[in-house]
Structure formats: C-alpha cells, structure tokens
Amino acid sequence: MDTSAQTKERTYIGEVRNLKREGFGVYNYENHFFKYEGEWHNGKKHGQGRLVMKDGSYVEGQFKNGEIDGDGFKYFVTSGAKYSGQFQKGELHGHGVMQYKDGSQFDGQWVFNKRQGHGTLKTSEKAVYEGAFFGNMRHGEGTQTYENGDWYRGGWVLDKREGYGEFRGADGTIYSGHWKSDQYEGDGRIEHCSGFIYEGEWFNGFPTSMATKITILVETNELEINHGDNFSVKVECRNEKGEVIEKDTGRELQLMAGFKYTKPQPGSSLFDMIEDVADKPIETPFGYDVVPFPLTYYSSNIDNPENEMKTGSKPSTPNDPNSKDTDDINDQIEWKPLPQPESKRSFEGCCEWNEVTLAPPPPFYSAFKGDIPNQPKNVKPGSRKAKAAIPPKGPKNEEYVIIVQDVTTPSFMEKSLEPAFLLLKVKRKKYIPKREPKPKWDTSKLIASMSKNTGEEEDG
After folding, report:
1. What is the C-alpha separation between 133 and 121, in angstroms, rounded?
2. pLDDT in tens, 237-273
3. What is the pTM (predicted TM-score) of this model?
4. What are 322-344's pLDDT values in tens digits?
5. What CATH class does 10-99 carry?
6. The domain made up of 213-427 is a member of CATH 2.60.40.10
7. Mapping DSSP to helix (H, G, I), strand (E, B) and coil, where does residue 176 land?
8. Which of 371, 385, 378 is nearest to 431 (CA)?
9. Domain with residues 102-208, CATH architecture
10. For residues 189 and 176, is the Cβ–Cβ distance under 8 A?
11. From CA 74, how far away is CA 85, in angstroms rounded?
12. pLDDT tens for residues 433-451?
C-alpha cells in the first residue's frame, strides 16, 4: 500500500464506475475552499448537488457537466443575500428572486449575475420599482413608487429618470414632460401643489423663463386719491430683464396697505403694546417701515360714522382716570372689520384688484391716536353733541404704501417673488364738527302764549 496515499486526505468519497465518479459522492477540492456533495456522471458534477464554499456560502440545485444549470438556490455569506431561481453555467441567469439582508427584494430577469430585463425591485414596504433593468440598474421604461409616496412612470437611463415621464408628488404636485439625469429638462408642464402652473422649457430642473419680481403698473411713481375714492391695482410677474412671464399662472398674490410705523414711546397704552407685538413692521424701499393698514372693497357705507363705530355700552365719565383705556376696550369689542380684498391668482403673468379703498382702522390703531378732539365742555359723554364732535375714522392727509407680495404656499422652487411697493397719497377734506340746530323762532306761538297770560290776569 502507498503510505503517501494514506497520509493524504482523500479528495473523493463516493461511487465510481469505469474509474470515473458516477452516482453519489463527496469531493473536496485540493484548494480546500470548495466541497461538493451530490450526484456525478461520467466524472463530472451532474444532477442534484450542493457546492459549499469555505466561508459558508453555498449553491445547490441541478448541475450539468460540472456547473449548476437550471433551478437552484445560492446563499452569499458575505452579504447575507439569498437567491432562488434559474442558473446557467454556474451563474445567475434567467428568472430569479434575490432576497437581500436589508429586507429588499428583486424578482425578475437575470443575465450572467446581473439584473437585466423586466423585474420588480422592492427596497422597502412602500418603495417599489417595476420595469426594465440593464446591468443591475433601472434602464428603459419603468414605474417607481417612493418611500414618501411620490410616484414616477417613464423612461430611465442608468438608474436615473430620463426621457419622457410623469411624476406625481405626495404633496399633490404633478409634472408631465421630459427629464435628463433625474432633472426636469426639455418641454414639460408642472402643476405645483400650491396651485402654481408652468408649461414650457426646462433646464437642469428649473424653468428657462421664470419670474423673479412683482411690478405694479402705474404711470407715475405714486398714486394720489381723495379720501373715500376707490382705486385699482394691476401687477405683472416679471424677470430680472423686466419681461412679463406669461407662462406664470396660478401664483397666489396678496394686496395690502401699510402706514408709517412709529416706534412706541415708554408708557404706551395696553392696546398700543398689543398692536406693536401683533403687527410686525414691514420694510419698504422708501426709507421707513410700515404696519398693516386695512383695505376693503369700495362701498358707500364706509363713510357712515354709524357703520364705523357702534357705541352700545355706557361711556365712562371724563373724571374716570381710566376713561381712555375703557373707551379703547369698548371700541375693540364692538368694532367690526370690513371684508379685506382676497388673495388672487396670477394668470399669464398678470393679476388685478378693482374698486378697493382704504378701510376705517380699528379704534385702537396707534397711528390714529389723538385724532379725536377733546370733548366740548358741559357736554355729556355719549350724547348727540359728543358724537358730533368725533370725526369719522379713516385716513388722514397722509402717505400710505400699497404692497403686493407673493404668498404662494409652499413657494414654487422654494423661491418667492420680490414684493412690489407703491406710494399712495390720500387727500382729505378738513373736518368741521356738526352743530346742533337752534330752534326756530315761532311768532304765532309767542303771541298765543302772551294772549293766554293776559286773559288769566283779567280773570284774576
């Protein structure tokens, strides 16, 4: 007996026919990395078998002429992935399912160990791609549902959206058009979740023609009106070159007015302090800040003092040290604001408000403190004479600022248009307090009274 043969580990243990491995047997490769146990034919692995690697990986299934070929199973110990499907000459080829360690799964076609052809890749419970693959990447036509609820169907090139495709965001945004390298590029239309709509050319994810600012259409740098007059405001959405962007539609714009802000002095009343907190000053290009001032649609009733101030509670007396604050509280409770002009949507780059006017401000509006004169002497507070001495609330002969700003929410492309500002000068007639009419002299009543008195004296 050959002693060297006795010391060596036997490489094959199993059935043999005509000096060739035939039937079932176990073969240990000389490199000690592979071990096969299964069926043999004519000296080659053939039939049902299992090939085990030293690191713990293994493949089992149908073998042909020494290689796994047909249906089988493979476990990758390094990645923890498990493949179940078809093989060809030892490689993943045909239809198969790969389960990855992180829980993701691919179910589809394989070509020489790569995902290629039609398949479904599920990377999480909600993130799923179904469509064409090439070289392990999404390539061709396919549909992708994302973890956050976004959805895309269209062309893919090397794992990126490219060509024509449709996108539906979880927030309601819809884009239909062309893509390149995962960006909007070429002709496309977007309906943003804010209501903004753009249809046209795109480049690198942005519209090639995009507005950056709001412009108020006026013949001069300021608008001058008389108190109580209405006016209109028309704006355009323009780019930095001053060109109107007619493809800008659905942007939400807000019209408002402002009055010059004066920093409160120490000792301000309670309502002044409240207003200073509630109304954050707005910076303007005119060298001063403003606080919001109410606007409304034109109505003949706004000049009626009875509509501007309703006094239902008993007024405080002049000697009451808290009379000023009490009046403010009563005014605050009973004052009813007029309807404000609603925000409007741009259409083909334009937007317009018609017949708007300055509204009476709240009674506690700090800009108009001191407008009400001192009450006449010997006049009962709340009486007709006292009310007649109170001028109707409204704008002075002052300068106001009309502001139009982009309040589209959420902002399109995370950018809002620069606001527009316009000076508004209001002229007001000098207020003359109403006087109580004196009773007319009635001669007939005087004669009758004198006659009556004379008759009584004669009877006496």
Report:
1. 10
2. 999 999 999 999 999 999 999 999 887 666 555 445 4
3. 0.72
4. 444 444 444 444 667 788 899 99
5. mainly beta
6. yes
7. strand
8. 371
9. Single Sheet (2.20)
10. yes
11. 9
12. 666 666 666 666 666 666 6
